[in-house]
Structure prediction request, 122 residues.
Amino acid sequence: MKTSPRSLAEVAQEFHRIRAQKQGRRIRFPKELWQKVFDLTTTFSVDEIASALAISPQYLRKRLNTRPKITIGFAQAQVLNKSHSLIEVTIRQQEHPVTLRWTGRIKELPILIGRLFRGDFS
Prediction:
């Protein structure tokens, strides 16, 4: 979903509103507001966003680098025999606990991964 220029203005307005209500030396912006800022990076450059929010581009880049990483799953591969032609792959999805086990030839692994990302397994 594309973010509109109006959305950048709305986020900037929210930043300015929170600053105006400042109580104390340090302002804490809500995580939800930072998530909106992170979403804007798909449409706007860091410099454009930083300028609209009246923060330094370096600070915004630092925030972007420290945002939480999402782990969507875990994959483990194990060679089953000395000829290295058979492999067992186990993929565990953390969000909705599902384990997919597959045993087959190594050259078929890209096909399995393609099917997995297309959602052929349920």
